[in-house]
Fold:
Amino acid sequence: MIKGCAVVTGASRGIGAACALKLAKSGLPVVVNYERNEAAAADVLRKIKELGGDGMICRADVSDRCDVDEMISGAVQKYGRIAVLVNNAGVSQIRLFTDITPQEWRRMVGVNLDGVFNCCQSALPSMIHFKSGRIINVSSVWGVHGASCEVHYSAVKAGVIGLTIALAKEVAPSGITVNAVAPGCIMTDMLRNECDEQTIRDLADESPVGRIGTPEDVANAVAFLAQDSSAFITGQVIGIDGGFGS
Structure:
């Protein structure tokens, strides 16, 4: 068992909440990060404690470095070290490329890419000190293949993959692994907000496995990458897409 705590960004719902619960089941205290929905984050923490786990909630905008540094320092102060960092917080938007405003572009980059940079750079000193750590970044199938009307989203998720592969090489000598998961169509609020029921059914029909994925499907892969037994796996991008991106 890796000692320390897990920090999961965007953990108040969806994939982040599923990752927080899965890591808690493995015995790790979990820092449940949220930006706006404190009640939902508190509910995730309640579920963690019902499982016999430990944790705390922490409000932080991952695009704000001061917020991130405060979150990481609070986690280290309480639990001694950061063992696992799951960079899950993200925003999405469907928009024609020619209609994307500079403000929308900066918001997409700020949360989805700057947020990963901020959290990794803030958490790494703790990991380097103990010569151990797991960083798991949540990218997307669209970061691999690109999506029409989601150019800004595809671009930043591709950036997450590039960051993952390069950082993995840099910190491997310090006993730290850096990997990414690339979810496909996952049944989250993000998907429901962007697609009507018919579109969701069509996406399920297009999937080789014949269904939409669940947050737990992603959490299972994240939990595997967080284990001691995954120590020889780094710089990888694992597709959690039911064959959709094949």
User: Anything to note?
Assistant: The two ends are 34 Å apart (CA to CA). DSSP finds nine helices and seven strands in the chain. The longest helix spans residues 102-130. The chain has one domain: 5-240.
